[in-house]
Structures are given as structure tokens and as C-alpha cells.
Amino acid sequence: MRDRDAQPIGGIARRLAAILTARGIDPAAPITDPVEPIPALQAAQARIPARYQAAVADHPAVTAWVRAIAEAGRPGPEGAPGIAQGRSLLIVGTTGTGKTHQAYGAIRSLLIAGVRLRWKATTAADLYAELRPRPGHDGERELMDLARCPLLIIDDLGAAKNSEWTEEITMRLINRRYNEMLPTLITTNLGMVDLRQHIGDRVASRLTEMSDKVILDGPDRRRALAAERRRIAAA
């Protein structure tokens, strides 16, 4: 399977794809950067890591998910849609296949599409480090803020060291978002069998039901870019 091959997506996204196609809109077409500046996108750029500030969600299944989320948004001030209930997205792939690039590209695409968006992003390792009990820190409040956030990115799920405490934290976070049907973008290097062993059956079961799954494969892009830089330098 190539990196850009479309993956099976959920029923909502499939129905939206059919509607968009009937309207003459390609549901898999990337949402490209606008000619005119978008204030919400400009504000978000300060929160997006420098490496991903020009990220584009160009995988067909990720693009279809973006359009499904944008289409489902509730109208707000001046008619701009806001994040509503929706499917989550689980992006699976080996190291360097572009999972984080696609996740931040999805955020940028939603903002370009005019969606009013409150979002947070964290890695699994940073999540556990931030929530670990310590004097003067309200980890419970932080957990609830993440659980209620309209759109959450959890990068590298399964990469952090596992324990009963991390499994329980993950369960509480995912279960709250599962119950409220809040869209969550999750990336992982692990296949579903290994991920289930790492995060537990309860979390894996909810992720399976709440998420559309996208598989990215191909060579490690970081190594390919490093090799290209070495080739250019030697030329």
C-alpha cells in the first residue's frame, strides 16, 4: 500500500463524499492555503510547531474526514461553522511516514475552511508528564479541559512507558470523548494488536468504534530528506 492510497473511512464520511461528489466537489482534494490571510489561521500558527506550520492534509481519507467535520459543524457568529459531534481519526504508520504532518495539516485545513475551532495538541508522553500528580498542580482540572476540548490531537499514542496509572488516565480521557462523541485526532506507530496491549482493551475497544482508521506506509521521510541533503551537499 502506498502512502497516498485512500483508506476505508466511516459511514458519515462516505455519505458526505457522495454528497460532495454530486455537487461537483472532489472530497479527496486537499484544502489549500488561501490567497488572503485568515485571522484564525494566523493565530493558530503560533501554536503549531514550526516544522508543521505549512502542513497540508493531502491524504484522501484525511481530507474526507476534514470535510465531514466541517460539514457537520453548527453555525455560529456570521454563519461560520463550529466543531460539533463527529468521528475521530486514528492515523497509523511507522516512523517518518507523515502522521503528525497529516494531523496538523487537518487542523490547518479546518481553519482554512472557515471552521471556528478550539483545539489542543499533545503527545502521549507530554500528556502523562503534565497530568502526573505533583504539589501545586491541578491535574484533574487539566484532564477535564482536555476531555471537553472540541478537537484534540494525541500524537504518538503508545510511545510512552505504560503503567496502570497511564492506562487509567488514557481510559478516562478517551471514554469522556467517546461518550460526548468529540472528534479526536490520534497518531500511533503501533498496529492495533500492539496498541491494544499497550493501552488496554477498554481504550482500544472505544477507539475502534469512534475512529476512522488511516494507514500510512512507505519509507521514512526524515531519512529520505537527510539523504537528499547529503546528495545535494556532495554534488
UniProtKB/TrEMBL annotation:
Record Pfam families: IstB_IS21 (PF01695)
GO molecular function: ATP binding
Keyword Nucleotide-binding listed: yes
UniProt keyword terms in alphabetical order: ATP-binding, Nucleotide-binding
Domain AAA+ ATPase: 85-221
Domain of life per record: Bacteria
InterPro entries (alphabetical): AAA+_ATPase, IstB_ATP-bd, P-loop_NTPase
Listed name of the protein: ATP-binding protein
Organism encoding this protein: Streptomyces cylindrosporus
Classification of source organism: Bacteria, Bacillati, Actinomycetota, Actinomycetes, Kitasatosporales
